[in-house]
Design brief:
The chain has helices at 2-26, 75-100, 112-148, 163-195, 206-223, and strands spanning 31-33, 44-48, 52-57, 60-66, 159-161. It is an alpha+beta fold and 224 residues long. One of its GO terms (molecular function) is structural molecule activity.
Length: 224
């Protein structure tokens, strides 16, 4: 019962992290325009993401444009593209492997040992995908904070942390937590298999049964 609850909890947390990773990869709110000093045009907001940049104005719908070239991006956003795509693929792979290794998925030729290895692989993939997501999110956040306090950077070019970065931290934490749950579950299964053995049952052999039958018939003849 407890092991099944751990599996379901790990799968739910991993699914939330996977969906969040997909959302963060496609969201344009990685870097948001900052309203400081003379840059007080509050009716216009600029969003910069991995794939496009958007301009949102008051009373006008948001307009987005895909980047013309990858070389037009900053080095942190260029690296974040590849890392986030790799993290998304690994999180999806970990989710599918976790489903295959779930206890409720009864296969004809599956065993507890094989399922334990599958769950362990899923946990390691979840942890790896969470680490891959943390790298670009923290890198972009550190670049934004560094440029924000740099007096040499133009005020119009300074940015603030966008909603995608906060969602990325939450998603990465969910992926790592799901991986830890699956790894702990695999460890518990190994301990259960090592201690949960049954004592062999000794059945009487044919010779012992024949000897008892002969002894019983002999004892009855003595009473006649």
């Amino acid at each position: 019962m407890l092991r099944g609850a751990l599996q379901i909890a790990g799968l739910l947390v991993g699914g939330i992290g996977m969906i969040g990773t997909f959302a963060v990869t496609g969201m344009p709110q990685w870097r948001v325009s900052a309203f400081i000093e003379n840059n007080i045009i509050v009716f216009e907001t600029i969003w910069e993401g991995l794939w496009m940049h958007c301009i949102r104005q008051a009373n006008i719908r948001m307009q987005c444009k895909v980047y013309d070239s990858v070389l037009a991006l900053s080095p942190d956003l260029q690296a974040s593209r590849g890392l986030m795509c790799a993290g998304s693929a690994l999180s999806f792979l970990a989710f599918m492997v976790a489903i295959i290794g779930m206890k409720c998925m009864q296969c004809a030729q599956s065993s507890w040992q094989a399922k334990g290895y599958i769950i362990l692989v899923a946990g390691l993939l979840f942890i790896l995908s969470g680490a891959l997501e943390l790298i670009p999110v923290c890198w972009v956040a550190s670049t934004i904070i560094r440029d924000f306090y740099n007096p040499l950077v133009n005020v119009a070019q300074k940015r603030e942390l966008g909603e995608a970065l906060y969602l990325g931290w939450v998603s990465a934490f969910c992926l790592i937590a799901a991986g830890a749950i699956f790894c702990c579950f695999c460890r518990c299964c190994e301990k259960t298999r090592s201690y949960g053995y049954s004592t062999p049952t000794h059945y009487p052999t044919h010779s012992q049964h024949l000897y008892r039958k002969t002894e019983s018939s002999y004892s009855k003849s003595q009473y006649v």
